[in-house]
Design brief:
With 386 residues, the chain is an alpha/beta fold. Helices cover 39% and strands 17% of the residues.
Length: 386
């Protein structure tokens, strides 16, 4: 009766079962996996949020397949503020980055076609690929005093059925991003093989490394068809507002064909709510204050992490951006056992395998946790490591 594409393993893993049991017993747990800003005291001011949603025309339904002009104008202004000049006609509004991925897969791939995606990376990508009968093939990120793309492995993974390369920039959870020679080489490979680039930039505004700079957006890329994704979820710490988008760039001919096809897809769904589109400019305007708060917390938690791990058996892998840290721990036990033992000590962390980490001995911590909780959780991790 049911589709094979949704026949996923749904049994809770040992960590999920242990966490549920701990919560059922009412035991306190320091959650170093929480990355929802609305649960970390990092949301925009409630009064400003309510004001943004109380404007005129929210009771008028005006379906537009690419999104309302008022929303696309606000998105164009966001890119202009960052130095990227795009046209409103290049923008397709969606409810989220997940829906942007869905539109991209529907646009580019037939059932059984292949999309290349980085490893480690966003755990939801395989599910989105399954839902669209797309085969997701990994290309590795290699760690050597920082994360770099293994371009030889990437090129070896390309087959006649490959349609696109996904780049998450900044990557979740490695905190690396496309820049300089890596970006140029990625574009050259896409051009050489006639592939599209799908670039997820949701963490682009959160470059926090002292010697880092804000990643340059791919929204102005002209050499190959490029679908650049972002949304309010991270930009303004508003995951509940459900507003994302794709900017389509590349040569005029292929860009216009992609936009025409995306318009049909958008017209089929018409999923984006009118009120949030009218509020887009105001909601994007809230980003400045909330991003300052988030970056302040992330940088302080990174400082605490480095301070407490100095001289210990653990260390933080180098990163430049995002809301996560990858921590290397002794390989005296597997990642899942590390997470289980930490949970027994009252600290919840992600084992690295959830993000397809390339080796054992890696844990993933959210950097959004309140500072006192984060410090205590890291102390317990270091103590467990010995």
């Amino acid at each position: 009766m049911f589709s094979s594409r949704t026949n996923w393993e749904r049994s809770p893993n040992p960590l999920a079962s242990a966490l549920a049991e701990r919560r059922a017993k009412g035991l306190d747990t320091i959650d170093l996996t929480e990355s929802n800003p609305t649960r970390c005291g990092l949301s925009p001011d409630a009064a400003a949020l309510n004001a943004a949603l109380s404007g005129p025309l929210i009771d008028v339904y005006d379906p537009r397949p690419r999104g309302l002009p008022v929303a696309r104008s606000a998105i164009r202004a966001y890119y202009a503020d960052g130095g990227a000049a795009i046209d409103e006609q290049q923008i397709v509004v969606t409810t989220s980055t997940s829906e942007s991925y869905a539109f991209a897969f529907q646009l580019l791939a037939d059932p059984g076609d292949e999309i290349l995606a980085p490893q480690p990376s966003y755990p939801l990508l395989p599910y989105l690929a399954d839902l669209h009968d797309v085969s997701l093939t990994s290309y590795p990120l290699i760690y050597d005093h920082g994360w770099v793309i293994d371009f030889e492995a990437l090129q070896a993974a390309i087959t006649p059925r490959t349609k696109a390369i996904v780049a998450v920039s900044p990557n979740n959870p490695s905190g690396s991003y496309l820049a300089g020679e890596e970006r140029e080489r990625m574009v050259r490979i896409a051009v050489e093989h006639g592939l599209a680039l799908i670039v997820d930039e949701v963490f682009r505004d959160y470059a926090w490394a002292v010697n880092g700079s804000r990643p340059q957006s791919t929204a102005t890329e002209e050499e190959c068809l490029t679908l650049t994704m972002n949304g309010l979820s991270k930009i303004s710490a508003l995951p509940q507002m459900k507003l994302g988008w794709t900017v389509v760039s590349g040569s005029r001919k292929i860009r216009e064909e992609a936009l025409a096809r995306l318009e049909v897809i958008g017209d089929t769904y018409l999923s984006v709510a009118t009120p949030v589109q009218h509020a887009a400019a105001a909601l994007l305007g809230l980003r400045h204050e909330v991003q300052a708060k988030i970056l302040s917390r992330v940088r302080e938690n990174v400082r605490v992490l480095d301070e407490l791990m100095t001289g210990s058996a653990c260390d933080r892998l180098q990163a430049k951006a995002g809301w996560y840290a990858m921590v290397r721990v002794p390989r005296t036990r597997g990642d899942e056992q590390w997470a289980l033992d930490l949970l027994a000590a009252g600290v919840h962390v992600h084992p690295g395998y959830l993000f397809d980490a390339p080796q054992e001995g890696l844990l993933v911590l959210s950097l959004l946790a309140p500072q006192a909780e984060f410090r205590e959780g890291v102390k317990r991790l270091v103590n467990l490591a010995g």
